Each structure stands twice: as C-alpha cells, then as structure tokens.
Amino acid sequence: MIKELLGKLLAPAPAPLDDQDARLALSALLVRVGRSDHNYSDVERDRIDRILRTRYGLDVGGAILLREQAEALEAEAPDTVRFTRAIKDAVPYENRMGVVEALWQVVLADGERDAAEDALLRLSTNLLGVSDVDSARARQRAEKAL
Fold it and tell me: Which of 14, 25, 63, 74 could be 31's S-S partner, Cβ–Cβ 3.0 to 4.6 Å?
C-alpha cells in the first residue's frame, strides 16, 4: 500500500489521489512536522490523532491506525520538497489549507515553537502553494483551537 502510494505521488504527472490515499499522504505530512524537532512526543501523537478523528470522522482506533500508517509512509517518503510538491499536485487547494491549519496544531501541541518545526512548516506551506497570509490565518485558528 505504501509503495503504491509513493509511486503515485512521485509519478512524473501525478493524478489526483483518491480520498484514502490523500488522507494518508496528508497525515504523513503531519507526522513529518511532528518529527522535525527530533522529539516526536506523546502530546504530538495525541494531537495528530485528534486532528485525524475530527478531520475524517474516525473513532479512536481508526485515527491511531491511520497515524501509524502515516508514520510508516513518512519514514519511506522522499525529501520534504518532493513529498510536499507531490501532495500539492495531487490534492485540491481547499484541502491543503485545512492541512496547514492542522500542521500548525501539531507544531503548537507541545507548547513550544521549535525552530526546526517552524522552518519545516514555512517550507511545507510554501511548497503546498499556500500564501504566508493564509498560513498566518491558519496559525491563528490553530492557536484558538488549542
């Protein structure tokens, strides 16, 4: 499953992903941000699980399973530039905006803004084609949600 999704994402002209593959790819990006400071904490995993439950209407077990699959995909995914650009090409803008807000929630989950997390979030947001203004608005919504 992971190998197949990576093949789709890295195809020369990626086609739009089906809902299940898009969920997994976007969830893997959440994991990548959580891991970026080399301190992938329980609080960040819990936040990702809550995001997945809310975003996709999953129960606790379903969210944990999706996160675990996303962790496996993230570990196999190429560098952030190629991975994020592939997501941009395969996922509609409105879905990417929601992901940016979720990325901010993961960054802010442990109460600390780490420089590595901030840098990865700025890079990812840019590569997803989301403007700085929209990202700032997403951060503000994420701060209010916490």
Answer: 74
Domain of 124: which CATH number? 1.10.3680.10
**Residue 40 belongs to some domain of the structure:** yes
- Comparing CA positions, the residue from 58, 85, 82 lying closest to residue 69 is 58
C-beta of residue 80 within 8 angstroms of C-beta of residue 36: no
Range of the structural domain that residue 128 is part of: 19-145
Residues 80 and 36: their CA atoms lie apart, in Å, by: 11
Q: What is the 3-state secondary structure (H, E, C) of 49-83?
A: HHHHHHHHCCCHHHHHHHHHHHHHHHHHCCCHHHH
